[in-house]
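target protein:
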Amino acid sequence: MKKITLILGLALALFASCKDQPKDSEKEEVAVTEADETQSEPDDWTVLFDGSSLDSWHVYNGAEPTQWKVVDDALVFTPAEKREGTENLVTDSTYTSFVLSLDWNISEGGNSGILWGVQENPELNEPYYTGAEIQVLDDERHPDAKAGTTHRSGALYDMIAAPEGIVKPAGEWNTYEITIDYDNNKGIVVMNGEEVVTFPVTGEEWDAMVAKSKFADWEAFAKVKSGKIALQDHGNQVSYRNIKIKQL
């Protein structure tokens, strides 16, 4: 009797074990589901500077960079003692709507800027003749900050002012996330995690801002939506790092 009971118990246990095992088709479905859950979202950011080379950049209008160097994982501009003209850096690729993320560090009394929509033209020796600029500045020491609130760090230069108290002092790293979205007609500047500036990027409102600025009579200024992104040579040392872009 004990043997029969034992045999029945083993049979029941085996039946329960088999019942709990999924079918081959169920195993495949579970495997696919788990793979989908563990697969990371596609990374739609493109690295423009990885801390090692200037492969995605060249000097405005085609020259080779001599004053931009990679120093301690940062892209550093140091103006030469004797030089002719400026050495603005521009992307190899052209962009329209995008999110640009980067860190910047300005020297004491320094001035620079980040421009978009830049058109390279041998007849125009500076990218600011065609591209609008987000200001990079030592607000405490550079006289441009005293020229008006639209010249401070974070400002849409000469058009939309940025608030005080968010930028870090010269010598410290700041972070920008700049959104230029033509589909939704919106520009946004986030500085050190805080939204500081919003503005239209096209249409009547944009035209009205330009008309009230120093660019009002500049024939080529901001006429084309697609263009290069530029890092400005304003004659002062400036550093950039962690530069990446997401096209919208």
Notes: The first helix runs from residue 2 to 20.
